[in-house]
Amino acid sequence: MDNSTVRAVNRLTTRWAAQVPAGDAGTVFTAAGVWPLLALLADGSGEQVPAGDAGTVFTAAGVWPLLALLADGSGGPARAELAEALGIPAEAAAEGARDLLAGLAGVRGLEAATGLWTKAGLPLRESWSAKLPAGARGLLTGDEDTDRKTLDGWASDRTGGLIDRMPVALPQGAEEVKLVLASALVLRLRWEEPFREVPGRAGQGPWSGRNLGRLSRTTASLDEVRVAQGTAGAVTVLELAGTEDVDVHLLLGGPAAPAGGVLGTGIAAVTGTVPSVTGSSLPDGDPGPGLTIRTEDSFRPQPLLRIDTVAFSLRAEHDLLDHAPLFGLGTAGDADYGHFPGISPQPLAIGSAQQSVLARFHAAGFEAAAVTAIGPRAGGAAPRTKYRARRAEVRFDRPFGFLAVHRSSRLVLAAGWVAEPDTVAG
Predict the structure, then answer these.
(1) Residues 6 or more apart whose Cβ sits within 8 Å of residue 360
(2) What integer is the mean pLDDT of 239-245?
(3) Number of domains the chain is built from
(4) Are 371 and 182 in contact (CB under 8 A)?
(5) 317 and 307 within one domain
(6) Angle 246-248-252 (CA atoms, 0-180°, nearest 5)?
(7) What proportion of the chain, given as a percentage, has pLDDT over 70?
(8) Which tens digit of pLDDT belongs to each residue from 254-300?
(9) CA gap 111, 103 in Å, rounded
(10) Where would you tag: which of 60, 78, 257, 403 has the fewest CB atoms within 10 A of its CB?
(11) Helices (H), 54-135
């Protein structure tokens, strides 16, 4: 993937992360799925994102390609707004969308797909449709039940049943959707070193007394953990390697640190925007949130890092039009005007833009899935000698963030905030 495209998607991820409310019950998001769609629209043309009480997930990686495709066909003020949301010129949006989707297709453990459905009789500009990435093509019949079955079937098939409904409204009459542009992302990875499940009660913090799905493992590398400084103060970043091309990073800030600040610092640390200090270079004591390092007598010279975290499952639905400025869709949603002359000679405005996302973190691995749809309408034997060895322990026993990151490009595929971990019967 082109570095400029990666930076642009990560920029949208960071902006989205910055708006996660401090008291959120759980959030997961991925910018990469949205960005490509925005880019296609533009080439032809700080609100808070609330989270549900049960937790929420979202992916900018699923939105960016769609916005990019829209940008490619947009005009007027909508074109400028989409370009701002994308972080690249509208003229480069279609190429950026194709580059991103091609790059995602080459990531082991990740499956990506796009689809386009148009109302019968809606003419498309060949100059726009010729730039679309390969994917499903279909017609909307205007019959809600028939179209719903088709679109839901595509979402379920492309996510292996993890998401069984296309997140798009299908109103009739004047509000009828003329076009559906969708992306689907599915990420599945297994840990190089699986965790042990150690269910038990949390001893302290906001989860105290609850029976949690605790996960534990020990590794010989202190450098899997590091500490970065950001607007939210110190943030502990733990890297968990997957067996494929993607790693997951857990992010822990101070007890009062806002979610958006912790996520923003974490994204900057894993992408190299801000420096961080690895565990082997950190001093003894408590150098980061949830992190303790000490040097002690040992029968082994190797350092040890003990990891104690929790399993979690998150699912969310997002109406992107509730936060239209973030995605460059403010003007594009005004049905009094046509904003996409590069897509069709018929005037079009955005009538629906939604995303369904889930994420699961467990002893064996991690998985995430997202389906994003935008609907324009009209208008990862002991020696006997004693040694002095370093021992570190990192505990995630209060709300924390996480990132799923493509190892070679540093593209953030998914991100989230966990406030409610999985519980087990006690």
Answers:
(1) 312, 313, 314, 366, 367, 368
(2) 95
(3) 2
(4) yes
(5) no
(6) 160
(7) 87
(8) 999 998 899 999 999 999 999 999 999 999 999 999 999 999 877 67
(9) 11
(10) 257
(11) 60-63, 66-69, 77-86, 93-105, 126-129
